[in-house]
Design goal:
Chain A: Keywords: 2Fe-2S, Iron, Iron-sulfur, Metal-binding, Nitrate assimilation, Oxidoreductase. The complex is a heterodimer of chains A (121) and B (815). Chain A is an all-beta fold and 121 residues long. Helix content of chain A is 0%, strand content 43%. With 815 residues, chain B is of the alpha/beta class. Classes of the chains: A mainly beta (121), B alpha/beta (815). Bound molecules: flavin-adenine dinucleotide (FAD), protoporphyrin IX containing FE (HEM) and iron/sulfur cluster (SF4).
Chain lengths: 121, 815
């Protein structure tokens, strides 16, 4: 899920969000991995500035590598291709578009005060 | 207005309601389902453990129907046409449909109700199994059938040491014979599962807290397990029908006629709870057909259900298993390869011409190619069909059933392709439903598409309608330097893992600076992005360049020290250099700092680029040698290092015709002659080995280099993505490439040479350039919010005095 606008209620402490890096640290069309409460979360910034967060584990190989895949689109849907064997996952739903029986978790992600934050909830 | 009431909300009920709503049923529909959630895709149940949520699996509920959950129907008053639920709710009906499915059979063994015993049928079951697996180390599945193996795979995915206990003499006795079962067992044991066949269960035992601790076999052996899953078959849920006096089979199942009507004309029954013509069906395909027949009858039609195909094809634990048609016959032909674990058997009539059925383990190709021939004359000798997988130009008759789940024939698919102008499998799925249930017929759909003359597009991917060669020309001629510009002006969408690396390679071949600069960085696949080769556990390997395979003792010592200090596994590669394995991303710059300081540079093992130029020791030392093969190899490797190309490039130089460097297996290979050098091109190892063709003889060193410059640049300009020189050369024709490169028939040779000169002049070591630039270095962390933290999923264990990755357990992956 994406929250594109700056968070206007940044002053009101809301729990559950973890800061992972500055928005400017993210390279467009590329991912990074964040470690939040022991969960590996792949965070992507797309060409239009959108943010997406999914599990970093590639369910086909078991390796924690999805953040290092190539970002793109498939019929408008933003995607990442696993760097292991190239299965393509939707950044929106986490579903593997090549094998819809398989999917990875998605997480909420937002920008607050210039920082990227993710929520496990 | 007719009041329709449906009991049970599983896949079959879902299909019934969907069909009725689609077809404009005018009455009211009320569904009473016992589970706490609406109908979901039970076939995909296991994916609930591998990331799917309950919502993902749940079917849509059409508007306008009434759905009551947690509503188990306990009685039918057929006289006054009212059903009653467990909590006392009553629902009157005009037409009643029973779609109560089946329940797992739990054999009456002592201890079957202990804490820790489960069945595998509903989302709630899986929640309970997942919960129980948290503190557990081992699990056992009772039943080695399809579902048992699927459940075993799921337990393995939950991290349990898993055993399967099968009463029969071998695994999957319903689908395969004894020989196939033995091969299947080999596959499954190789995955680390314990298999116990011909073994019953004496009792299930518990510890002091009443929790399961293990299973005792009749022979007294105890299998330790904290989780026990029963998967010993299913039984139709006919209890409601039975108590309301409807006819049920002696061994279970609600008796119906061809129109799905029970012994009470106001009541239909569909799905797994049904007994039709003496058969109970445990598969969604026939259940869906029943739902459609019942819907048709309710709407006043004449639809009829006929005995359904029971063929099976699945991939469980990575092993393909398939069964189709009969499981015996007058004659049978078996193909078995114990090395690869393939077992295939065809049953044929006594004249060996009519196919009756077949069994496959390890490779289900015959299922795909031969199943439609069941009951028909075979297109060839059975043994030949098994060995070759069947001729690819085999003509299927039009009435042959291609998709058995949705009962679609080849004729229906062909007319859909012709009438609707379909061009891809997705289109066929949408129009005919073929391939939408279990998916095993999708390979055949592709074949039918190709045969129906649908032109296979040269488009690189959905984003570019151009081939790689066309894109190369666009980029070169228009002087485009960014992917964004290219896709905005000449493509659609935002690219993918196919077109992005292709364009990155084109930009690099044309010399556009460091591959990690600016927008180019985002185009690279992970190997190029981290300038290292990703390995199966997500670590990387490091390969410094060792031109010509020549290396000083001091440099060898540095490699050894680096490997030792970072705990890397070392292996001599086939390309006469050394690969260091097991580096985490954050270690890569530290490792390369040491290597670059000692005078090493990137070996581009990660890139579609020049890999190595191997050499034999040549005339300097060898008593047969006629030229200095090492000197030439070093010079060539330094000239073409870093050259990005459509695919990797390999080369070798031999010092005489004895060819110790195996140059004729390379993209460009050189063999010394008394007069100079012979150049060979288009060689390959790999999947399809090919000896290189002689391209030019007795060249001087200068002539040789000029020829290779032209040859490589022409290849880079015109080859398809990921097309090695061998295939490219065969497509272009050796004579044509000779004309272009040796006789300059296109008048482009000066341009090709100039392009190579620009590459040589512009070369800089990619790793040194990274180490010198903080911005490029920033990406080398495992975690953006914890740069010093190593990835906790990566671990090693010892093997032969070095390390090897501890593999991460894999959950079930359906395919
Ligand atoms: C793990 C697993 C994997 C499978 N894989 C495949 C596969 O790959 N391919 C394939 O073809 N088939 C597969 N199957 C079989 C397939 O799921 C079934 O054929 C299908 O679910 C049958 O649908 P149904 O609606 O007839 O019955 P069910 O799915 O059993 O649905 C019946 C529903 O009715 C409810 N119900 C029962 N009695 C009452 C009552 N008295 N009052 C109210 N509600 C009631 C039940 O709670 C249940 O929700 C698989 C099954 C499982 C468990
Ligand atoms: C990926 C594909 C499939 C999978 C994973 C699968 C899995 C299963 C499972 C788990 C069962 C439960 C019963 C048991 O333990 O034996 C089952 C039963 C059955 N399947 Fe499949 N199935 C698949 C495809 C098919 C297809 C395409 C057919 C035929 C059209 C088929 C035929 C059967 C039959 C006849 C049964 C009944 C067995 C019984 O009576 O218990 N299967 N299948
Ligand atoms: S190819 Fe000729 S020169 Fe090279 S090592 Fe073999 S025999 Fe010696």
């Amino acid at each position: 899920m994406t929250v594109l606008s700056e968070d206007l209620s940044a002053g009101l402490e809301e729990t559950g969000w973890t800061r992972v890096c500055a928005y400017a640290d993210l390279m467009p069309e590329r991912g990074v991995c964040a470690l939040v409460d022991g969960h590996q979360i792949a965070v992507f910034r797309t060409f239009d500035g959108g943010l997406y967060a999914i599990g970093n584990r590639d369910p086909f190989s078991g390796a924690y590598v999805l953040s290092r895949g190539i970002v793109g689109t498939r019929a408008e849907e933003p995607t990442v291709a696993s760097p292991m064997h190239k299965e393509v996952f939707s950044l929106v739903t986490g579903v593997c578009l090549d094998d819809p029986g398989v999917s990875v978790p998605t997480y909420r992600v937002r920008v607050a005060g210039g920082a990227v934050e993710v929520s496990l909830a | 207005m007719a009041r329709l009431v449906v009991v049970g909300h599983g896949p079959t009920a879902y299909r019934l309601i969907e069909t009725l709503v689609d077809r404009g049923f005018g009455g009211s529909i009320t569904v009473l389902g016992e589970e706490p959630r609406a109908a979901y895709d039970r076939v995909a149940l296991t994916s609930y453990l591998t990331g799917k949520s309950a919502e993902d699996l749940t079917y849509p509920v059409p508007d306008g129907i009434t759905l009551r959950l947690n509503a188990r129907v306990t009685g039918i008053d057929r006289e006054s046409r009212v059903v009653t639920t467990a909590d006392g709710h009553t629902e009157p009906y005009d037409v009643l449909v029973l779609a109560t499915g089946s329940s797992p059979f739990v054999p009456p063994v002592p201890g079957k109700d202990l804490d820790g015993c489960f069945v595998y049928r509903t989302i709630d079951d899986l929640d309970a199994i997942r919960e129980a697996s948290r503190g557990a180390t081992a699990g056992v599945v009772i039943g080695g059938g399809l579902l048992g193996l699927e459940a075993a795979d799921a337990l393995r995915g939950l991290g349990l040491q898993t055993h399967v206990v099968e009463m029969g003499g071998w695994l999957m006795p319903r689908q395969v014979d004894e020989g196939g079962g033995a091969v299947l067992r080999g596959h499954i044991e190789a995955l680390g599962l314990g298999v116990h066949t011909g073994a019953g269960v004496k009792e299930i035992v518990a510890g002091p807290q009443g929790r399961v601790t293990g299973l005792v076999k009749p022979d007294g052996e105890t299998i330790e397990a904290q989780v026990v899953v029963f998967s010993a078959g299913v039984r139709p849920r006919d209890e409601l029908a039975r108590s309301s006096g409807l006819a049920v089979g002696e061994r279970g199942g609600i008796v119906v006629d061809d129109g799905m009507r029970t012994s009470d004309p106001a009541i239909y029954a569909i799905g797994e709870c049904v007994l039709h013509d003496g058969m109970v069906y445990g598969l969604v395909g026939p259940c869906f057909t029943m739902a459609e027949v019942a819907a048709d009858r309710i709407l006043g039609g004449e639809g009829a259900f006929a005995r359904a195909d029971m063929s099976t094809k699945l991939k469980l634990l990575g092993v393909e298993v398939a069964q189709f048609g009969a499981m015996d016959g007058a004659l049978d032909v078996t193909f078995m390869d114990p090395v690869t674990g393939v077992y295939q058997k065809l049953f044929v009539s006594d004249d060996a011409r009519t196919l009756l059925g077949g069994i496959c383990v390890g490779d289900a190709t015959p299922y795909n190619t031969l199943k439609p021939f069941v009951g028909r004359e075979l297109p060839g000798a059975p043994s030949e069909l098994l060995f070759t997988g069947g001729p690819s130009n085999m003509e299927l008759p039009d009435d042959a059933q291609v998709c058995s789940c949705n009962n679609v024939t080849k004729g229906q698919i062909c007319s859909a392709i012709a009438d609707k102008g379909l061009t891809d499998v997705a289109g066929i799925k949408a129009c005919t439903r073929a391939g939408t249930a279990c998916g095993s017929c999708v390979p055949m759909l592709k074949q039918i598409l190709i045969k129906s003359g649908v032109e296979v597009s040269k488009a690189l991917c959905e984003h570019f309608a151009h081939s790689r060669a066309e894109l190369f020309d666009i980029v070169r001629v228009r002087g485009i330097t960014t992917f964004s510009q290219l896709i905005t002006e000449h493509g659609t969408g935002r690219g993918c893992d196919v077109c992005k690396p292709t364009v990155a390679s084109i930009l690099a071949s044309l010399g556009n600076g460091h591959i990690l600069d600016g927008e180019q960085a985002a185009l690279q696949d992970t190997n190029d992005h981290f300038l290292a080769n990703i390995q199966r556990n997500g670590t990387y390997s490091v390969v410094p360049r060792i031109p010509g395979g020549e290396i000083t003792p001091d440099k060898l010592i540095v490699i050894g020290e680096v490997a030792r200090d970072f705990g890397l596994y070392t292996k001599i590669t086939g390309g006469q250099r050394i690969d260091l394995f097991g580096a985490r991303v954050e270690q890569l710059p530290l490792i390369w700092k040491r290597l670059v300081d000692a005078g090493f540079e990137s070996g581009h093992a990660y890139g579609k680029a020049l890999r190595t130029v191997k050499s034999c020791v040549g005339s300097t030392w060898c008593r047969y040698g006629v030229q200095d093969s090492v000197g030439l190899a070093v010079a060539l490797e330094l000239r073409y290092r870093g050259l990005r190309s459509p695919h990797k490039l390999k080369s070798a130089v031999s010092g005489c015709a004895r060819e110790c460097a195996e140059a004729r297996g390379k993209d460009f290979g050189i063999i010394a002659t008394e007069q100079g050098w012979n150049l060979y091109v288009g060689g390959n190892g790999g999947f399809t080995p090919r000896h290189a063709d002689l391209f030019a003889s007795d060249l001087s060193t200068d002539e040789l280099i000029r020829t290779i410059d032209r040859f490589l640049m022409f290849y880079i300009r015109t080859a398809d993505r990921l097309q090695r020189t061998s295939v490219w050369l065969e497509n272009q024709g050796l004579d044509y490439v000779k004309e272009v490169v040796l006789e300059d028939s296109l008048g482009i040779c000066a341009e090709l040479e100039a392009q190579m000169e620009r590459h040589v002049a512009g070369y800089a070591d990619e790793w040194r350039a990274v180490l010198e630039d903080q911005d490029r270095l920033r990406r080398f962390v495992s975690f953006v919010n914890a740069p010093g933290t190593p990835d906790p999923s990566i671990a090693f264990e010892p093997e032969r005095d070095q390390v090897k990755p501890v593999l991460i357990p894999l959950e079930a992956v359906r395919s």
